[in-house]
Specification:
This protein is an all-alpha fold. The chain has 6 helices and no strands.
């Protein structure tokens, strides 16, 4: 018997979340080493949007299956917990992604002219400087940013471990459903009295 279609989609969403966490980790490494993460940021934006859509589709499919009684209520509840946990991880990945992107991305002409094509150059990094960086030198600010990125990397590593465990749980659920379906097929082919005895023994 083939694996449940919902579980296949759930497994694919878990893999996507894992890949996003790895890409954020790589984006942070590029930032630390002076690389250009622009292309990776575009990929991450698209992947995060796709993950959000996949989670919404999982919810919708699960709700319809529960209403139509295609799965038992206990199984519906368990899958609801799985998709809720995945949605929480999607929110955290979004926060990690947005937290590392500087909101100040001035154009090259603005850096050279002050924004209007004429007049003295204005340093855009000194506008609305935060209390945390005011008075710090460039080296101190860079060190502070590296510490923030390292802390986020540690959080992403922990998140990746949780996502991996979530994927394993989904696979275990699929295996359990296959065993239950095989048992049901077997019971269909034996007398009712014998089936009742086997069922009562399987639930002890």
């Amino acid at each position: 018997m083939s694996q449940d279609f919902w579980l296949q989609n759930y497994d694919a969403a878990c893999r996507m979340a894992q890949e996003i966490a790895e890409h954020i980790h790589e984006r942070n490494r590029l930032q630390r080493t002076g690389g250009n993460p622009a292309k990776l940021n575009m990929t991450l934006r698209a992947s995060l949007q796709k993950l959000k859509q996949n989670i919404a589709q999982l919810r919708d499919t699960l709700n319809r299956a529960a209403v139509q009684r295609q799965i038992m209520q206990a199984e519906a509840d368990r899958r609801q917990n799985l998709v809720d946990d995945l949605a929480t991880r999607e929110t955290r990945l979004n926060a990690s992604f947005k937290g590392d992107i500087s909101e100040a991305e001035p154009a090259r002409s603005s850096l050279m002219t002050g924004g209007n094509g004429s007049g003295p150059a204005v340093n855009p990094w000194l506008i609305n400087e935060s209390e945390e960086t005011r008075g710090l030198g460039f080296g101190e600010i860079k060190h502070q940013q590296q510490q923030i990125i390292e802390a986020q990397d540690a959080g992403l590593d922990a998140l990746a471990a949780v996502i991996s465990r979530q994927k394993q749980m989904g696979q275990e659920i699929g295996n359990e459903l296959e065993e239950q379906n095989d048992a049901i097929k077997h019971l269909i082919g034996i007398p009712a009295a014998q089936a009742a005895v086997l069922l009562s023994g399987s639930w002890l």
